[in-house]
Amino acid sequence: MTKKSETNFKSNIEQCPVEMAVGLIGGKWKPILLFHLETGAKRYSELQRLIPQASDRMLTRSLRELENDQLVHREVFAEVPARVEYTLTDDAKALYPILAKMSKWGSERQNK
Known about the structure:
- A hairpin with a 5-residue loop joins β2 (72-77) and β3.
- Helices cover 60% and strands 12% of the residues.
- It is an alpha+beta fold.
């Protein structure tokens, strides 16, 4: 094993919990999506309105990653036209106190 592969092997076995958490919710849009979904189920168009700076591609990608990581539940309703709603899973709901503190910190920082 090379020194680099030994490091990668070790990090896979003994991954830092913060590194793992940031890997799941890191990025520009994921924390913002999670924060907005805390108030209840949202349709894609609602999320687009709430986060107009995010491109369709990045919004879709972030939602898919959150769904794959079981932080967001995507429900498709059998209607015409099809209706899709996104909600938080219980794991994601546990993050809300952290996101609320980040929001408060961000507000205080803006007011400086």
